[in-house]
Amino acid sequence: MRRSPLAIAIVGAAAVMALAVPVLGSAYAVSFTIQLLVFLILAYSWNLIGGYAGYTHFGQVSFFGVGAYVGTLLMFHWGVPWYLAAIVAGLSGIVLAIPLGGAMLRLKGPYFAIGMFGLARVLEAFALGFDSVTQGGTGIYLKPMTDLRPLYFVMLAIGAVMLVATWRLDNSRLGLKLLAIREDEGAAESLGIRTTRIKVGAFVVSAIAPAAVGSLYAAYLGFIDPPTAFAPNLELTTIAVVLLGGMGTVLGPLVGAIVLSVVNELLWASYPQLYLAIIGVIILGTVLFAPRGLVGVAMKHAWLPAGRALFRRLALRCAKAA
Amino acid sequence: MPLTELLVGGILLGGIYALIACGLNLIFGVMRVINFAHGDIMAVAALSSVSIVMVAKLPFWVAVLVVPLAAALFGLLVQQLILRRIEGAPVIMSLLATYALSTILVNISILLWGGGYTGMPGVLSGSVKLLGVNVSLSRVVSFAVAVGASLGIWWLLARTRFGRAVRTVSQAPELAEISGISVGRVRLATFALGTAMAGLAGVLIAPTFAIDPQLGSRFIVKAFAVIIVGGMGSYPGAFAAALLLGLIEVFGGYFAGAVIGSALLYLLMLGVLLVKPRGLLGAGVRV
After folding, report:
1. Domain A5-321 is of which CATH architecture?
2. Is the pTM higher than 0.80?
3. Domain locations in chain B?
4. Closest by Cβ to A287, choosing from B28, B96, B269
5. Residue-wise pLDDT tens digits, A84-104
6. What is the pLDDT of residues B75-94, one digit of tens each?
7. CA–CA separation, A29 vs A22, rounded Å?
8. Nearest chain B CA: its distance from A82 CA (Å)
9. What is the assigned CATH class of domain B2-115+128-275?
10. What whole-number distance in Å separates Cα of residue B17 and Cα of residue A139?
């Protein structure tokens, strides 16, 4: 992403819009953009482990949910301000991710996917079961926020940090190592890359923002219950956002989040089943017809400069032809 | 006598898990594809059986015959239209494809059948005495069919020409190709057989359990636990693990509550993945 007009235009337009919304926009525009930012932050986090390291991660909503509950309980019982609650929630993401990642990421490929698959359901069952702490299915109500703008800017800042961090990663040695793991883990290991350590690192980093955003989202809604905290639709939308935008790319999650927030806004509230089925169709269609996502298509047509992944694929094609 | 009651209940539950896991295992063993939609194919099969029996007023055996065949047909389509096209792609693509398929199936069945619970009262009702415990007939029948189907698959793989071709394709696809086995066709047949087993499992759970479009996700996690604990791709391992997990769930649920009961399965699966990733019997494929 070096001085590409389209890339600068996309990021610039998104930034201007995002900054203008709370000043000029209606309350509706603000809440729409908050929803978009939730998807965006989850997507950038998922992109680290799913896009760069190539690990199919079905457990991200678990961190979101745990963060939501940690934050909500702090706000509810001790009246902790929402920003402090979000910080503690982010830390709780780390605390959960270190042992979980350390254990699970010794597994490869499909085993990791299976291992993480049921986690959110188990945690949801716990949240329902331990109703003395979480108030079970009734949920916890918080004092509604009067002014959403501070929360909005905090979320925007987290999203911006994730974008810049991904851009830095894309141009770093560490990013290259993650891509090496994605392409051939055995070969990466034999080159001396400490694969497990790097994977666990990426996993832990990818857990912080979702947990913090979980807490922020709970504060924004003023309410949390197990189906909201561990919503399968969030997991699904996150994966669709990254896949549609382009896995392992800097701009992919941004592009995907903008497209899918609109779809989400149009359909989720009135036709949830239709929305989820359409998300499924989008994932399936992307896998079949454009596995590199929209950004990949743009790179292919040279609207965007090619990332490393594309160079590597071209090199591979030459090597095969030779 | 709660102890024998739990014992019988656990083993009967395990039989169902064995049937679900068997199809999943078959597909993984041959194609190295993890079919996240397996449970949802089962859910659609169960809902269709309920419609066949309760709405169309046809006898239960019609569902037993028709639904697995329809599931096999669906499997053929999925393999031909989706999975075949991403065979060479990274693993993440097939995982995401079956995951997407699962979502599509769940939500379309909610749109078709509604989100609530249905059932099949009056089919295979009545009870039999087993070890001095009264057990509903439907549970015993589904256990017997599950065991029969699992044995049938084992026989098919171990003793027939087709089975030998399947095993060759799973162990060495290139060698299978040069020995004149049509790898594509074997994969097609395997996937259809696997989805047919999901269909059969769906028909069998319809008279026993409360059926809703989301039951797939509840069962698939348990089926994953079964094939992990038993060792991926190992059929005897999966059968033993299915009985073990059925017992653990029933006993855990009785003594520690339903939440802990199902969480135990998950924890056991994590433990096995970490300590003995080839399964308790050590018969699974290498991770």
Report:
1. Orthogonal Bundle (1.10)
2. yes
3. 2-115+128-275
4. B96
5. 899 999 999 999 999 888 888
6. 999 999 999 888 878 888 88
7. 8
8. 31
9. mainly alpha
10. 33
